[in-house]
């Protein structure tokens, strides 16, 4: 940022410079004009309450909850997030997966029939519901890995393990289901293990477009959203820029360069921050909710609520639908993605997905929009941190 402007810049701009442009669900390289940093909300919730008033309000609107129910759900999701890795260890080879049941307000753990009575009792004692399923997570993950090695036609959108159904779900584009290439792929997929076929209205896509204003960051003629601050920079989507590419901020001044970038296969990158810019552990609420402090990166389970804030469509919430899903973009497949029913549009790419105060990932791609809805995927943030040896900037 230009030093001559430093003493005049608003708090909102500082937050955006920090590299926390929020979360989106579509790889947003460039799109229509959005709220600039200087007009974004600047209130940061620093209390010890389970969530800010703004986040509770958003959850009431998104899920039709009372304030008490929203608080209870956040606390239940935190408990499920903590329990999930312990449940995997307790069940051992009989582990079939797990998910958060919003109706029951607790984690459901799937186990195969050979789970020991002691393991089942331990899981229930820890607060989980236990469900017996046909296949273990190891079997389902192995089947998905074999499908990952197949060449998927454009009429196949994605595939992931569904622990509740104890199957690998392959999603095909509805009006392409009868295509010969799609049918051949499905035949080969069914041959490797338990597979169920579902359909979707559209194929997933990245959301690039031309630059039109002063939103989060730019590289070349592409605009994307900043993800999460790390010490020394920020993480974002790999399709937003190649390693070495220069990055400019909302005001056009130089921020840094892409230090690493991968797409397809993965969809993650990180950018170093300097030249008067700095990072803070905040995700912008864009006036819909208070700006959210980032306190960690504990992984939310399937079924948990999740929100994202992007530079185009700002703040929206939804639910985690699936983990470790392979998404088949036109540029190639991307692996180990998390699917949500949060909407997003062009320009939101690279932005933050957050559950409560826990960072979840950066927006990769999806289908639909924030008028009619859709589905979006994010690249889990812990994988990005591990890949580049980065440390998340937390409060």
TrEMBL record:
The lineage of its organism: Bacteria, Bacillati, Actinomycetota, Actinomycetes, Kitasatosporales. Residues 28-43 have a biased composition (Low complexity). Residues 135-179 form the Peptidase S1A alpha-lytic prodomain domain. Belongs to the peptidase S1 family. Pfam families: Pro_Al_protease. Residues 1-23 form the signal peptide. Keywords: Disulfide bond, Hydrolase, Protease, Serine protease, Signal, Zymogen. Residues 28-49 are annotated as: Disordered. It comes from Streptomyces vulcanius. This is S1 family peptidase.
């Amino acid at each position: 940022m230009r030093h001559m402007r430093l003493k005049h810049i608003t708090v909102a701009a500082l937050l955006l410079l920090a590299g926390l442009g929020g979360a989106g669900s579509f790889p947003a390289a460039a799109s229509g004009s959005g709220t600039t940093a200087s007009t974004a909300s600047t209130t940061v919730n620093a209390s010890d309450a389970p969530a800010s008033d703004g986040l509770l309000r958003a959850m009431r609107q998104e899920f039709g909850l009372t304030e008490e129910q929203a608080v209870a759900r956040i606390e239940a999701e935190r408990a499920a997030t903590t329990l999930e890795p312990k449940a995997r260890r307790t069940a051992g080879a009989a582990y079939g997966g797990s998910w958060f049941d919003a109706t029951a307000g607790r984690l459901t753990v799937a186990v195969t029939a050979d789970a020991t009575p002691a393991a089942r009792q331990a899981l229930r004692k820890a607060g989980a519901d236990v469900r017996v399923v046909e296949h273990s997570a190891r079997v389902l993950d192995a089947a998905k890995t074999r499908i990952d090695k197949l060449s998927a036609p454009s009429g196949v959108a994605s595939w992931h393990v569904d622990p509740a159904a104890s199957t690998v779900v392959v999603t095909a584009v509805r009006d392409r289901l009868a295509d010969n290439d799609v049918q051949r792929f499905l035949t080969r997929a069914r041959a490797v293990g338990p597979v169920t076929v579902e359909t979707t209205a559209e194929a997933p896509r990245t959301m690039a477009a031309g630059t039109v204003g002063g939103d989060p960051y730019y590289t070349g003629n592409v605009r994307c959203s900043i993800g999460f601050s790390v010490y020394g920079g920020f993480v974002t989507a790999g399709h937003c820029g190649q390693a070495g590419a220069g990055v400019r901020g909302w005001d056009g001044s130089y921020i840094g360069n892409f230090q690493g970038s991968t797409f397809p296969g993965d969809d993650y990158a990180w950018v170093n921050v300097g030249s008067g810019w700095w990072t803070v552990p905040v995700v912008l609420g864009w006036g819909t909710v208070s700006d959210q402090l980032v306190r960690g990166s504990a992984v939310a389970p399937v079924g948990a609520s999740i929100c994202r804030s992007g530079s185009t469509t700002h703040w929206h919430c939804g639910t985690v639908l699936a983990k470790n899903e392979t998404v088949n973009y036109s540029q190639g497949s991307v692996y180990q993605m998390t699917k949500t029913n949060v909407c997003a549009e062009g320009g939101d790419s690279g932005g933050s997905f957050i559950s409560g105060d826990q960072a979840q990932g950066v927006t990769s791609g999806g289908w639909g929009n924030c008028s009619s809805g859709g589905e979006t995927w994010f690249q889990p943030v812990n994988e990005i941190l591990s890949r580049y040896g980065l440390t998340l900037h937390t409060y």
